[in-house]
Design a protein that fits this description.
The protein is mostly helical and 119 residues long. 66% of the residues lie in helices and 8% in strands. A two-stranded antiparallel sheet has the order 1-2. α1 crosses α2.
Length: 119
């Protein structure tokens, strides 16, 4: 519950700032994707300034997230390997416990010498 309150305390001002930014920067700007053409080119668009800023932030978050995901790949691989090893160890443990249970149930089993009185 406290975590949600803290999230709202941080996210609400950021959302309010984004709305204020969008309202204050509605004027269209020319976004040109051709660095060599000075005038109108086929790769220029007229978009509101807030759209350029917000889309740039979204692209930055996406690129940063992809970089972090790529960088942490080795840790995810280690985790998968460890989970596989843990599952194998658990099945081996269960098998050994079942074998031990059968050996103890048999009257002359492998561990029968433990029940003999000391000489």
């Amino acid at each position: 519950m406290l975590r949600r309150i803290v999230n709202w305390l941080f996210l609400a001002p950021i959302a309010l700032l984004a709305v204020v930014l969008a309202v204050a920067n509605r004027a269209p700007v020319t976004l040109s994707l051709d660095p060599f053409a000075r005038g109108d080119s086929a790769f220029s668009f007229s978009v509101p300034l807030f759209a350029v800023i917000i889309l740039s932030m979204i692209a930055g978050v996406a690129i940063g997230g992809a970089a972090v995901w790529w960088k942490q790949g080795r840790y995810r691989k280690r985790c998968r390997t460890a989970e596989h090893d843990l599952a194998a160890a658990r099945s081996e443990t269960e098998r050994l416990l079942a074998d031990l249970g059968r050996a103890e149930a048999a009257p002359g089993g492998a561990l029968a010498f433990l029940n003999r009185p000391a000489a």
